[in-house]
Write a structure and sequence with these properties.
- This protein is mainly α.
- It has two domains: about 1-65; about 75-190, no CATH class.
- The chain has seven helices and two strands; from the N terminus they run αααβαααβα.
- It has helices at about 1-40, 45-65, 75-80, 100-105, 120, 155-160, 185-190, and strands spanning about 90-95, 175-180.
- A two-stranded parallel sheet has the order 1-2.
- It is elongated, with a radius of gyration of 37 Å.
- It starts with a helix and ends in a 12-residue tail after the last helix.
- Mean pLDDT is about 75; it is low at about 1-10.
- Keywords: Glycosyltransferase, Golgi apparatus, Membrane, Signal-anchor, Transferase, Transmembrane, Transmembrane helix.
- Its main location: Golgi.
- It is found in: Golgi apparatus membrane.
- This is Putative ovule protein.
- It is a single-pass type II membrane protein.
């Protein structure tokens, strides 16, 4: 019995010695790693890093303090008074030269090298009225269906926003701006042959 207790104690002391040697080895490795990093980064670099971080915080602090104040709420209340339906604000539509939009409609036969795209951009971009839908669509809504081309969305949007109730003619009072450039129709002309990368 006595011998058994002694052997247990000796095994416990061996385990304890083994654990403490592991801890001391780990501590030594961590200290060694720290000294290696410390030797790789000179103290002057650490000082400059701290100074840089401090200066960035200081600059951010002064930028936040010197930002212009918010506009007075009375201005936005006046705009809502113009049209109470335009709670989100007004849109100003830029008047671009015809080469960026309406000229594509006027020269619709040149948009595609194989066929005329004039039908696709007709009717304000909606295209021709859809026919042959009597068995698919109820009769009372058939007149509101069109064969709309997927690249005509810019034309449709432009025509709609020109008559929108939240369109405003004064850019100073606008919260949103629309630039009516028909990029989809424009790029279609250069996707095919006989054009260089510069043209595209």
């Amino acid at each position: 019995m006595m011998q058994l207790n002694l052997s247990k104690r000796s095994s416990n002391s061996n385990e304890h010695h083994h654990d403490s040697s592991k801890k001391s080895k780990l501590t030594f490795e961590l200290k060694h790693a720290f000294h290696t990093v410390k030797s790789q980064i000179p103290l002057t670099h650490c000082v400059w890093l701290l100074i840089t971080i401090f200066l960035q915080i200081l600059i951010l602090f002064f930028l936040i303090r010197s930002s212009p104040p918010n506009p007075p709420p009375s201005n936005s209340q006046q705009l809502v008074a113009l049209n109470p339906d335009c709670q989100s604000g007004y849109v100003y539509v830029y008047d671009l030269p015809a080469t960026f939009n309406t000229e594509f409609i006027d020269k619709c036969e040149e948009l595609d090298p194989w066929k005329s795209r004039c039908k696709a951009v007709s009717n304000g971009g909606f295209g021709p009225s859809a026919t042959g839908l009597e068995r698919v669509v109820p009769e009372d809504i058939t007149p509101s269906w069109y064969w709309t081309d997927m690249y005509a969305a810019e034309v449709i949007y432009h025509n709609r926003i020109l008559s929108h109730k939240c369109r405003i003619m004064d850019p100073e009072k606008a919260t949103g701006f629309y630039i009516p450039f028909y990029a989809g129709l424009d790029i279609g002309r250069f996707l095919w042959f006989n054009y260089t990368a510069k043209d595209r």
